[in-house]
Design brief:
Residues 6-53 form the F-box domain. The chain is an alpha/beta fold. Helices cover 44% and strands 10% of the residues. It starts with 13 loop residues before the first helix and ends with a strand.
Length: 309
């Protein structure tokens, strides 16, 4: 007579657990099979698909705060996830607070895609405070999050003290003059950031002046996005001064502004002696055909410069 054997997570053979995991998608393995019990954690740690899992993508799922809390509980024991993608979820400051609690201690995650949410200045403060202690995150995307000037102020402190972040995306965030000044103050002391996107924030010419003063001394930023920021010829002249003195910047995005042909020619002339590749985006400005001809002819004198008109 055969004996009945009760199977549980404590007794089920490892090979059988592997077979079950084979039928689950990777996100389910990460979010539902972790922290159930110590033995299941041990088994999933050795499961080949979990070991290769490096990205959690929850973009556009609009999961609520309780599921975010569950995700954060799992992430606190994270050993594989390096990319966290939580964009387009209508998250506010409460969800940002949860993610910040993970970043405060996590030493694995390098990329946080948190754009197109609604974290505001309060959520930005939570994230900034966490990243003052975090030493692994290199890319932070907060585009379209309504952070405003107050949020930019929190990020300014981060730029001064954080030594890891290399990419910061703040496009479409209702940042205006005061916020530009805050960020410029941070950039003037920052030694690690390489890419900064500020496009579609109405910082105007005065905001560009603040940034330009910082960039004259900054030695690390290589890419700056200033598309659709209400830039006119006055602000473009501040940028000319940067190009004459800064030899670190390699990509400058000035699309969709109000730069004239005459000032565009000044920008090109400032780049003529550059000895490294440089990409300048000037399309959708106020550059007439004569100005475009001048620029195209000027580019023949330095093949390292690439211009879009």
């Amino acid at each position: 007579m055969s004996k009945n054997t009760d199977l549980s997570l404590h007794t089920i053979p490892v090979e059988l657990v592997y077979r079950i995991l084979d039928f689950l998608d990777e996100l389910t393995i990460f979010s539902a099979c972790r922290n159930v019990c110590a033995r299941l954690n041990t088994i999933t740690n050795t499961y080949h698909r979990y070991q290769r899992l490096s990205t959690v993508y929850l973009g556009g799922n609009q999961v609520g705060i309780e599921k975010v809390k569950h995700l954060c509980n799992v992430l606190r024991h994270n050993k594989t996830i390096v990319n966290l993608c939580l964009q387009y979820n209508q998250y506010d400051s409460e969800e940002a607070k949860c993610i910040s609690s993970v970043l405060l201690h996590d030493q694995i995650i390098v990329t946080l895609q948190f754009h197109n949410n609604n974290i505001g200045p309060q959520g930005t403060e939570y994230l900034s405070n966490a990243l003052l202690k975090n030493t692994t995150l290199t890319t932070l995307n907060l585009a379209n999050n309504y952070i405003g000037d107050e949020g930019a102020g929190h990020l300014s402190k981060l730029l001064v003290e954080n030594k890891t972040l290399t990419t910061l995306d703040l496009r479409l965030n209702q940042i205006i003059l005061q916020g530009a000044q805050y960020l410029a103050d941070g950039l003037s002391e920052n030694e690690t950031l390489r890419i900064l996107h500020l496009s579609r924030n109405n910082i105007g010419d005065q905001g560009v002046k603040y940034l330009s003063n910082a960039l004259i001394h900054n030695k690390t930023l290589t890419t700056l996005g200033l598309e659709g920021i209400q830039l006119s010829d006055q602000g473009a002249e501040y940028i000319v001064n940067v190009l004459l003195q800064n030899r670190t910047l390699m990509t400058l995005r000035l699309r969709e502004n109000r730069v004239s042909a005459q000032k565009a020619e000044r920008l090109i002339d400032a780049l003529m002696d550059i000895e490294t590749p440089f990409a300048l985006y000037l399309d959708y400005n106020q550059i007439d055909n004569d100005g475009k001809r001048y620029i195209k002819n000027a580019l023949q004198r330095n093949s390292r410069i690439k211009i879009t008109l």
